[in-house]
Amino acid sequence: MAARAGASGFDPTKSPLEVAFLWGKRGVVVTTTLLQNWLNGHTTQNLEHRRDILKRRISGAGATFQHGSAVILGLVVFVTALFVDYNIISEFWTRALSNEFGEVPPALASTVWAKSLQVLFATLAVHYLVTNIGHGGRIAYSLLIFAVTAVMVIGIGLLWANNSLPAGSKVFGLDVNSSAQSIDQFMKGLGINPPRKAALPAEVKALKKYELLIWLFSLGVIFLVVASIGAMALHTAMRGMTGFTGGAVYDTHRDARHGNSLRDELKRTDLDIKHLRADEVSFRRAKVAEFITFYTDGVVAGRSWRQQYLLDRANRAAREVDISAIDSDESSNSNVEDIRDHRRRAASVNA
Hints:
The chain is mainly α. It has a domain at 62-245. It is built from 15 helices and two strands. It has helices at residues 16-26, 32-40, 44-59, 61-97, 106-116, 118-132, 134-163, 178-189, 202-209, 211-245, 254-278, 280-302, 307-320, 328-334, 339-350; strands at 170-171, 174-175. A two-stranded antiparallel sheet has the order 1-2. Helix 4 packs antiparallel against helix 10 (211-245), helix 6 (118-132) packs across helix 10 and helix 11 (254-278) runs antiparallel to helix 12. The two termini are 58 Å apart.
């Protein structure tokens, strides 16, 4: 959670019990002064401040707008991606099942839409992949899709430039515009033999053999890019929904755990405020006990060879710490210097 707070690592919503656990795991020696300062941080003002920040992050107006926008925009992009991929696959199956006249037989026409629905399952498959490869895996996958998209956009730009050339234009001695062929047909109709076309280079003839494979590969790349964008949009929508609900019981991914930890900390803070207002001495005693429990868990998790020493020092500090109630008025007055005393000292020094 500290990493989420920024470069400084400070997070006002961070649980003090989590701090105790981290101290134990890192082998921090607990002294009476350290434990006393940790305990004195549990004031009504600090607890109410933490509660307000947690409420703002969980259910504030900004959080609600962000979660709602993620859900709506994610679903819109997901449905749009399905529509685009459906048309791509529908065109593929129409060409694959059509006869020599470009018509799909009636017996097979009804199966085109069913075969085209595979885009839904393909997009869901990519969504499950994106969900389970972790944060680092999603970054790597996004970079891969970006690279493929860049190549696809460059290819589309080349095709557009090729189709925008004037009639009869030649690139490397080849006709690249269909209007040049229409001129040849017109000359044949007049009984004039058109000039002989230059022979195709060997490289072009070699590419002609793989024309179908290139077309299928290009179609697959476009389908993969659109399906991946739709899957990542659905993942974003699911994250927004998790922000509203906290996730299901079986959701163990990072976002669900972080959201649930914030909700648990909000509930714990509300209980601490009620306990502090009801009986401050009992509250401080309970907090010291909780500190020792979480600190012990951290020491065990850290597997330090100084476990016994760390636990003995923590228990000694717990016995020596002051758990009496803090008089806020007395403590605040003791920290304020009377300006009249300062003037008297200044006058005596000048005299």
